[in-house]
Amino acid sequence: MDGGGSGAVANAPLSVVSVVSYGARGDGSTDDTAAIEAAITACVVTAPPHNGCVLYFPAGVYITTGIALQSFIHVKGDGWGTSVLQLKAHTAADVLTIPPSAFNFSINGLTLDGNASRGGRGHCLSVAPTPASPAEFNTANKQTATVNAQKWGHIEEVMFSHCSRDGIHISRFNYMLFLDNFYTLENGEYGVYSEGDNSGFTSFQIERNGVAGIRIDGANNRLTSGEVIWNGASNPRLAAVYVTGQRNLITAVETEDNYTSGFFDSGSDNEFIGCDSDSNGYIPRHPEASSLHASGFVIGGKGGVYLGDKVTSYRGRLPDGNFTTQWPYTLATESASRIDITYDNTNQPPAIVAEDSAAAMRGEEKTAGHAACIKSAGPPVVMGFCSTAVGPDGECACN
């Protein structure tokens, strides 16, 4: 592929710019930051609408102290594990940052490696916070703007690995990011953490991240067709998929073999459709024993819909005599819209938590003497409530 550096015609758009043409070595030891930044400058040296390029990374390991992407740059590598952008040892930075001004970009065929084992500290991909206002929703034509809340960024076939913090970190007031066929592996905190809104995540593998696989604090995001596996070894108190935001849609997502609960919903109006919690709840770093505290689903939000979901264990009983999952679901609120969760291979039936405890989970004042209960175990589960606390046997007179 032609580097397009020295042979470019003045004032003409650079269709392809190779970082090698600007001095990047990709040898796994040379700091290529300055060379990559020079190639980025070449991509945007002309005024819109003639700026932008394909920024090409041939096979190699490119060491950097952190790179910021710009609008209209479309990063292309030769495939994850082949073209690698790796944080320099003992460096505190994010491998690749999307600044507030950036929109209309893409990343394809690349690995972002945080080099945590050699002292790298930061996120793999960081989408920087965008101010709530003034923000320009720059959706048509090529324009320049100080702030672009709508990113229109497309990220496909990218691996995010070995970062001390998150594989993907999306900060507040960022919209319209589309991630497809991606892999987050062995990051210190979350595989994906998003405070942003209106983005899509499809066909993903989220594996062996320390705190949780996915955490969604934003609204109106779609997560479809993915596996979340072996997460939570350093912090089993959350869940493989942990949702605190609003109106998010999670479909055909499987959580499997995590050291924590499968799904946790403490937001509002979220939908979990056709999701599977399989063999979650091991003791951290000890997959032969149950923690005896994990649920397939923890239902602690308002207005949630759980339709066609399942909790199971492909491994059956563990050597300690227990199933991995203690409860198929923990019902911590009477405010769910619908629950249709089938289950087998759990240690106990669904757990019902008094409403005052559920309120405490949501940071609300306690309501003494008000408890959620199940009128019919279903599926679908029919919800009710009672005016006295749940008894020792977990039952109350449902209204």
Word description of this protein:
This protein has 399 residues and is mostly beta strands. It has two domains: 187 residues, Pectate Lyase C-like (3 Solenoid); 190 residues, no CATH class. The protein contains two helices and 31 strands. The strands form four sheets. It has a 16-stranded parallel β-sheet that branches. An eleven-stranded parallel β-sheet has the order 5-8-10-12-14-16-18-20-25-27-29. The chain has a two-stranded antiparallel ribbon with strand order 23-24. The longest helix has 11 residues. 49% of the residues are buried. The N terminus is likely disordered.
Helix content: under 10%
Strand content: 35-45%
Tally of alpha and pi helices = 2
Give the termini separation. 70 Å
**DSSP summary, beta strand count:** 31
How many strands, what sense, and barrel or not for the largest sheet? 16 strands, parallel
Q: Which residues sit in consecutive blocks of at least 5 with pLDDT less than 50?
A: 1-14, 355-371
Number of domains: 2
* Rg calculated over all Cα atoms: 24 Å
Q: Outline, from the CA principal axes? A: globular
Mean pLDDT across residues? 86
- Estimated structural class: mainly beta
